[in-house]
Amino acid sequence: MAKTALEMTKEQLAAYHTGAAVRRREVLLQPQTQARWEQAQRLARQAAQRLREEFGVRRVVLFGSALRRPSFTPWSDVDLAAWGLPPERFYAAVAAVTSLSTEIAVDLVDPDRCPAALRTVIEREGVEL
Question: What is the CATH number of the domain that holds 19?
Answer without folding.
Answer: 3.30.460.10
